Amino acid sequence: MKKIACSLLILSAFASAHADTNPFFNGYENQVAVNFGWGVDSGFLLPAPIKWVPFIMMHAQYSQPTTFFNLPARKSLNITQTLGFSTSRGWHWDKYTIPIVMLSEDVILAHGKNWYFYTGLGVGMQAQQNERIGSKLLFGFKLGSGYRLTECTNLELFMQHYSNGNTAPENNSYAFFGFGMTYNF
Predict the structure, then answer these.
(1) Residue 177 to residues 156, 158, 174, Cα–Cα distance (Å)
(2) Cβ(78)–Cβ(61) below 8 Å
(3) pTM score, two decimals?
(4) How many CB atoms are located within 10 Å of the residue 171 CB?
(5) 3-class secondary structure, 45
(6) 118: domain CATH number?
(7) Which residue range is the domain that position 180 belongs to?
């Protein structure tokens, strides 16, 4: 964990991101995104994509531009629906078909002309607690990269992690690897 935090800190210190440009938006002031992710079973903040499970997420997001310590960023309202089906690795994934609402902020750490690399944090609520995550309170962590397809659209690849931040005895987390499309207007 310390190595990951140090790597992100060093990357952000030498990042080519500047507040006068925001690669998320390309000059626009609003953004909508639709994302899809497939679940992995891991208790780690940065899970390896090796323990795939029958658990998906569908995610809609509305964002506006902002800055974070002079780095380009976006603040977002997120609505996620998790969908579980079948049993795998000792979990009945259909029990975790739960909606999640979250506020988040993503910050660009590095970018080029048509690409960007970002990380994000969020806080939100799931509609019901369960034995996998023992609270309604959720914290989100995201790592992603994006590529500008047109002036108004971007393709993003991401890793999304949800947990309760050890605020309850059960904290087995949800983790997803996925892709999404953004549209700026």
Answers:
(1) 11, 6, 11
(2) yes
(3) 0.87
(4) 15
(5) coil
(6) 2.40.160.20
(7) 2-184
The tens digit of pLDDT for each residue in 137-184 reads 999 999 999 999 999 999 999 999 999 998 988 888 999 999 999 999
The CA angle 70-72-74, to the nearest 5 degrees, is: 125
* Alpha-helix residue ranges (DSSP H) falling in the chain: 2-13
Question: 139, 122 in Cβ contact below 8 A?
Answer: yes
The residue written with tokens 């992995």 in the block is 40
Q: Number of folded domains in the chain?
A: 1
**Owner of token pair 């390309």:** 26
Which DSSP string corresponds to 77-99? EEEEEEEE-SEETTEEGGGG--E
Tokens of 106: 């993503």
Task: Quote the DSSP letter at residue 178.
Answer: E
CA within 13 Å, CB half, 166: 3
Q: How far apart are CA 91 and CA 68, in angstroms?
A: 38
